[in-house]
Write a structure and sequence with these properties.
The chain is built from six helices and two strands, in the order αααββααα. Helix 1 crosses helix 3 and helix 1 crosses helix 4. Helices cover about 40% and strands about 5% of the residues. By secondary structure, the chain is mostly helical. The radius of gyration is 19 Å and the shape is elongated. The protein folds into two domains: about 80 residues, Winged helix-like DNA-binding domain superfamily/Winged helix DNA-binding domain (Arc Repressor Mutant, subunit A, Orthogonal Bundle), CATH 1.10.10.10; about 40 residues, no CATH class. The longest helix has 17 residues. Strands 1-2 form a two-stranded antiparallel ribbon.
Length: about 160
């Protein structure tokens, strides 16, 4: 699975907004310049972020965007989902009863990819804009308990490395 530019750019722009937000709104032109993202692309993303209630906008001179929620309660998953970025790894539709094979059955690896999708969602739901701004993301992913019993601990990537 590869997160598209929609989700990545939305998170980058929200983190930029969060890092410099003060009393006055921030223009998308300023965000576009700092993050090297197309202004027209940002306008599309911010329209979706505004509809999702993650940012508020002010028109006119001195206008721009502000965060609509505190940093600590703005989850990365909310940002990604607001711009219609699917977080599914399976070929089947989300919560689909029918599988991805032509006969309607699920492939042999369906549960593997379904669980990976769930883990991605859990991880992105556990990270907030505050974590990103304070650079407290590394080490947030926990090792699955069963992995601790593997005989080759050097093969594991631990949260502290």
């Amino acid at each position: 699975m590869k997160l598209s530019t929609r989700g990545r750019y939305a998170v980058m722009a929200m983190a930029d907004l969060a890092s410099i937000q003060g009393e006055k709104p921030v223009t998308l032109a300023d965000v576009a310049t700092r993050q090297e993202i197309s202004l027209s692309y940002l306008e599309q993303l911010f329209a979706q972020l505004r509809r999702a209630g993650l940012v508020s906008s002010m028109r006119g001179p001195g206008g721009g965007y502000k965060l609509a929620q505190p940093l600590a309660s703005t989850r990365i998953s909310d940002i990604v989902l607001a711009v219609d970025e699917p977080l599914e790894v399976t070929r089947c539709g989300h919560n689909s009863v029918k599988g991805c094979k032509t006969d309607g059955s699920r492939c042999i690896t369906h549960d593997l990819w379904s669980e990976l999708s769930r883990q991605i969602n859990l991880f992105l739901s556990s990270i907030t804009l505050e974590d990103v701004i304070n650079r407290q993301v590394l080490g947030k992913a926990a090792i699955f308990p069963a992995a601790e019993s593997i005989n080759e601990p050097e093969a594991l990537v631990t949260a502290g490395e």
